Amino acid sequence: MATIAMLISHREMFNASFTHLDSFGMTRECKHDGYIYHTKANACLRLIESTGITWMNARTVCLENGGDLASIKTVEKMDYMLDFIRETDQVWIGLRQRQWMTGDIFMNVYNISVSLNNIDTAYTQESDASCGLLKSTSKLRDRSCNLREEKYFVCEIVLPA
């Protein structure tokens, strides 16, 4: 498996302490190293850099750390994610076969370019080309799950309400 290292990038808009007040005035924080708390999603997110990793292996890394690849079910979270990944080219996210890792069915509610056609022209021998790749240029695509390697992926740990 590829060596994983935390991506160090420009994040002045995020609170360095990873602690925030929720709507009830209670402190919420990400107790996992390298994760940043997203208030509206009540989840901790981490952008991870690798030397190149498939979607399946990226998901395994997230699961081993108590989360999953990030699911993006609202316009607000999509806007947040696009800002979160702005210094990358593209990242693996928690979308496969038009279903988020949370179990929710994908619905195109975003104001971005979406192309989910189960085809990855660079990997025509791939039997599963339905894995989500979010581009920092506001494009969502599906690509090879088992063969294509990407440098970045976003893990998410959803916190209990």
Automatic annotation (TrEMBL):
Source organism, top-level taxon: Eukaryota
Annotated ranges, domain C-type lectin: 40-146
CDD domains, sorted: CLECT
SUPFAM superfamilies hit by this protein: C-type lectin-like (SSF56436)
UniProt-listed InterPro entries: C-type_lectin-like, C-type_lectin-like/link_sf, C-type_lectin/matrix_domain, CTDL_fold
PANTHER family linked: C-TYPE LECTIN DOMAIN-CONTAINING PROTEIN 180, RH26557P
Name of the molecule in the record: C-type lectin domain-containing protein
Originating species: Mytilus galloprovincialis
